[in-house]
């Protein structure tokens, strides 16, 4: 008696959905760049023109000068935040680069943006990974680093990659640990924390396992194990 094929179909559908989601993310980033970012640049230009006109007409009081400077500061701050967001989620070369190179580049970016110290340890040969698997791991690591910094207040993070043998082929294990504030996972589960649930969903989409360990005052550890190959597509 043959085993039911429904789980494989579900994983394959999730695999395709992940690829569509990644494409949709890049489309949204492009829309942000070509829309709001350009509008903010235009607003800065108009603000400069307004200031020059007021100076020429000798109508720029010290109070108005302060307000103009404050508006410029707010616009520039918002623009820098949006550009940083776009830069963080700009698609790396998933097809052309291996996971280790992708991770190294992501960690360098994170250190530069947050002053966090991130240590990377690679054990054993890292297997070649299918593109959907690389995308999933990359986005999980991205979210884990962001959570450690924004929510945990961590200033040190350790990332470990380790190749492992599996019954159905090579697998990869990734752990991300930090020295942040930590939290109660049970309370997070009750609140359906979007970031944590998103990481779990991404890992399960590529046929992997996700584990979280944390406690108040004890930092957090995320452990992921995934197959090197993406779930087979349904014919």
UniProtKB/TrEMBL annotation:
Its main location: cytoplasm. Its EC number is 2.7.13.3. It is found in: Cytoplasm. GO terms for cellular component: cytoplasm; membrane. One of its GO terms (molecular function) is metal ion binding. It catalyses: ATP + protein L-histidine = ADP + protein N-phospho-L-histidine. Keywords: 4Fe-4S, ATP-binding, Cytoplasm, Iron, Iron-sulfur, Kinase, Metal-binding, Nucleotide-binding, Phosphoprotein, Transferase, Two-component regulatory system. Its cofactor is [4Fe-4S] cluster. It holds the Pfam family HisKA_3. Residues 137-230 form the Histidine kinase domain. It comes from the Bacteria. Member of the two-component regulatory system NreB/NreC involved in the control of dissimilatory nitrate/nitrite reduction in response to oxygen. NreB functions as a direct oxygen sensor histidine kinase which is autophosphorylated, in the absence of oxygen, probably at the conserved histidine residue, and transfers its phosphate group probably to a conserved aspartate residue of NreC. NreB/NreC activates the expression of the nitrate (narGHJI) and nitrite (nir) reductase operons, as well as the putative nitrate transporter gene narT. This is Oxygen sensor histidine kinase NreB. It comes from Longimicrobium terrae.
